[in-house]
Design brief:
By secondary structure, the protein is α/β, with parallel strands linked by helices. It is built from 26 helices and 13 strands. Its main location: membrane.
């Protein structure tokens, strides 16, 4: 029971826990037991057992987990149908996307075969289809065209004497560039996966990825316009190359090859119609209509010879690595982000989990091994993965079936695609980008939901269009990171109140049912405190608490300096007075030796000097109207008091909170003191909410996940500065890593751990017990009167 002006009973709930108390409880653990636990963990980590070895091998080769339990009767037919469907899609898409990579179409078939076989053994997703993909094909094409432009392979035709491009030499070098980039990108993925860096894909937010793929789709469309219209624009590279290419294509439109344009338009119409039919009849058709394979044959620019068989592995050209390392890293990150996002979507739908780091290793090995067989960078395809899942695919056996389809085509059926017009492949690319064109509706959605994500979307789209895919990706990620920094620099600061009947503390502005705890300010930031927002955190604390600590401390120190000056003047006056008395006594002694003198006369002279001194002092009071005189505290922990009134005999003793805005502070100093004259013009009302009702401030750091040196210094200054005006500071809700960082930074060298509490409620109870002697209101909060020393 706490007795005060209003008698209120507070029921005992639990012990108040601060950091010091928690350490005492943890030290009760026997040291020998701790040593035993440590030894046991160390021994288990170094022990090599059969189950542990099995888990390691299965984790690296997920196929060993599901293949021994594979049921041919349950999964065989669905996987076969799914694999055939995906394999049929692999053929035209592989050749079409190879054109995006500026490579001969056959290398798209290679990229659809080898990586899928490798992923079968190392991949953890059961439904994604590994192979060529639009975005990566465009990114590879930007690298091959940059390092192997047509201008570097010009030769003079011996027959006509006209310069022309040596297509064979150019394509051969472009294949080397693509293979080297793929091997390097795959190696980066494997290294990141082995280092458990599977989280790197999280830095590519969904708005960023969707905007990036939308801009890449625009690049793909522009790259196919020359094939659709049958024109030959100049090749540009670097920033704004898309703008230059578009201007050049528009300038060549009068030279359009009409048969090529007609074939392209007809192919696009037929493909769109067939895809719509497939979508509407999806439930009735077990296998989608392979309309993409129905080529149109006429005298146009053809695919050309497709060599039969498979190519032997070759070593990549290592001299190309330094020129493509940045592009390889971009391919590695973008490909992984697309694959793992698709994998997680299907895993969530079908109730299994995928390992992000293992997916990085699997995709890396697929690219690295494929690069030795002259493949270019691959990842999961959105359209083929959707077909594999909707046609009933259950496992990666569907990937094996699709690889067999591609293998048979390369071995025996390649000649069937030699007369396929490139305009048809361009139309296939164009139609398959339809899903990415729909992503432009994100602008409307993000405008309604999140303006910052909309800005990220627009900046990513514009930068990717203007700066090309590699620099656009870097600029987009950098801008996205800046938005995170900006949002942590401007978090929401709030003062919390208590929800009656609970131990919850909520924002006073957002919840009407919560009540402010008298005398205690509970301050919380929605973001962690670090160097970028530490100063803003301090300013927000001043504003929310109503205590402009900077002005108050400056004012107090000035008063202390003036008090020291007055003390020195008083000491000098006392010294002069003592000197006069001593001189008077000496003169009186001399007169006593030299003759008779009057004691009453000498006493009268001394009395007159004393009255003059008193009158001088009293004149200082009478010359000031409605004056207020501050009396400094004897100890640093005492609050300031003041004497208010015009008559020194009727002055009253008051506290700082009794002052009104019109009260002008005067300090009884001489009129020649310039600093004193300046301070006399300062009204206490201009110093902010000068109130002493707050005796404690609790900093809720539950949102902080780390503390850097700047934030640590800011917290230490908060403790010191508010302590100067007799306001106690407490910290509550710190996570264990934050407490460790405070200890490592020496925060508790001059601040005791009694100021650190497990929860806000513990801190509030402690403050009430410490400061609530006879002043607690009738307030609905449960206080525990613990005998435990905190």
């Amino acid at each position: 029971m706490v007795t005060g002006k209003t008698c209120t009973m507070y029921c005992v709930e639990r012990e108040i826990l601060d950091e010091q108390r928690l350490e005492e409880l943890s030290r009760r653990l026997d040291s020998s037991q701790t040593h035993t636990l440590f030894s046991h963990r160390l021994k288990n980590s170094l022990r090599c057992s059969i189950p542990k070895l099995k888990r390691t091998v299965v984790g690296f080769l997920p196929v060993l987990y599901w293949l021994p339990h594979y049921s041919v009767w349950d999964y065989g037919m669905p996987d076969l149908i799914s694999g055939i469907s995906v394999g049929i899609m692999h053929l035209p898409q592989g050749m079409a996307y190879a054109l995006l990579a500026s490579l001969p179409p056959v290398f798209g078939l290679y990229s659809s075969f080898y990586p899928a076989l490798v992923y079968f053994f190392f991949g953890s997703s059961r439904h994604i289809s590994i192979g060529t993909f639009t975005i990566l094909s465009i990114m590879v094409g930007s690298v091959t065209e940059r390092l192997a432009p047509d201008e570097n392979f010009l030769i003079v035709n011996k027959t006509s004497g006209i310069e022309e491009v040596d297509i064979t030499a150019r394509d051969l070098y472009r294949v080397q560039v693509a293979a080297a980039t793929t091997v390097l990108g795959g190696s980066i993925q494997v290294i990141l996966g082995l280092m458990q860096f599977g989280f790197v894909g999280t830095y590519l937010s969904e708005p960023l990825v969707r905007a990036y793929t939308s801009a890449a789709a625009a690049h793909a469309v522009l790259a196919q316009l020359k094939t659709i219209f049958g024109v030959s624009p100049a090749r540009f590279s670097g920033p704004l190359s898309m703008v230059y290419t578009l201007v050049d294509v528009c300038g060549l439109l009068p030279n359009t090859h009409l048969p090529t344009l007609v074939v392209s338009v007809l192919s696009i119409v037929i493909l769109i119609t067939a895809k719509e039919l497939n979508n509407r009849c999806r439930k009735k058709l077990q296998v989608p209509i392979p309309v993409e394979n129905n080529a149109v044959y006429c005298d146009l620019h053809l695919v050309g010879k497709i060599p039969s068989g498979i190519q032997p592995p070759t070593m990549p050209n290592a001299s190309i690595f330094p020129e493509v390392v940045v592009d390889a890293f971009a391919l590695a990150i973008v490909g992984y982000a697309i694959s793992v996002s698709l994998g997680k979507t299907f895993a969530l739908k079908h109730g299994y989990k995928i390992d992000s780091s293992q997916e990085l290793v699997a995709l890396g090995l697929s690219n690295a091994v494929g690069g030795f067989f002259q493949c270019y960078s691959v990842c999961a395809s959105m359209s083929r993965s959707l077909i594999q899942e909707t046609t009933g695919g259950r496992t990666q056996m569907a990937g094996i079936a699709s690889s067999v389809i591609v293998l048979v085509t390369m071995m025996k059926l390649g000649s069937l695609f030699q007369e396929l017009p490139k305009a048809v492949l361009a139309a296939i690319v164009f139609v398959n980008l339809k899903g990415m064109f729909k992503q432009y509706t994100d602008i409307v959605t993000l405008w309604r939901r999140n303006k910052i994500d909309l800005v990220v979307w627009l900046v990513t789209w514009v930068s990717t269009l203007l700066l090309n895919l590699d620099m656009g990706l870097a600029a987009s990620i950098s801008f996205a990171m800046l938005t995170v920094i900006f949002r942590t620099q401007s978090p929401r600061y709030s003062v919390l109140g208590h929800l009656p009947g609970t131990e919850l503390y909520l924002d006073l502005e957002s919840h009407r049912e919560v009540r402010e705890v008298p005398g205690i300010t509970i301050f919380r930031s929605s973001a962690t405190i670090y160097f970028a927002n530490a100063e803003l955190y301090l300013e927000a604390l001043k504003e929310k608490s109503g205590l402009d600590i900077t002005k108050m401390i400056t004012y107090k120190r000035r008063q202390e300096a003036k008090q020291r000056k007055r003390d020195r003047r008083a000491a000098r006056r006392a010294k002069r007075q003592a000197k006069r008395q001593k001189q008077a006594l000496r003169a009186a002694s001399q007169r006593s030796r030299g003759g008779v003198f009057s004691v009453e006369e000498e006493a009268g002279q001394l009395g007159e000097r004393g009255r003059d001194f008193i009158q001088d002092e009293e004149s200082g009071w009478k010359n000031r109207e409605n004056s207020t005189v501050f009396i400094m505290p004897e100890t640093p922990n005492n609050s300031w008091v003041y004497l208010k009134g015009t008559d020194p005999e009727t002055t009253t003793l008051g506290s700082m909170s009794d002052l009104q805005d019109g009260d002008i502070t005067t300090l009884g100093c001489s009129s020649e003191d310039t600093l004193s004259r300046d301070l006399e013009r300062i009204s206490l009302g201009s110093l902010g909410k000068w109130t002493w009702d707050i005796h404690s401030i609790i900093l809720d750091l539950s949102t902080a996940n780390f503390i850097d040196t700047v934030a640590l210094k800011t917290l230490r200054n908060i403790f010191h500065d508010f302590g100067e005006i007799d306001v106690d500071i407490y910290i509550a809700g710190c996570q264990a890593p934050v407490v460790e960082q405070l200890e490592q930074g020496g925060f508790f060298s001059d601040i005791t751990k009694e100021r650190l509490f497990t929860t806000v409620h513990d801190a509030v109870l402690y403050c009430i017990n410490l400061r609530g002697d006879g002043t607690l209101p009738n307030y609905d909060i449960k206080v525990h009167m613990s005998n435990t020393r905190l």
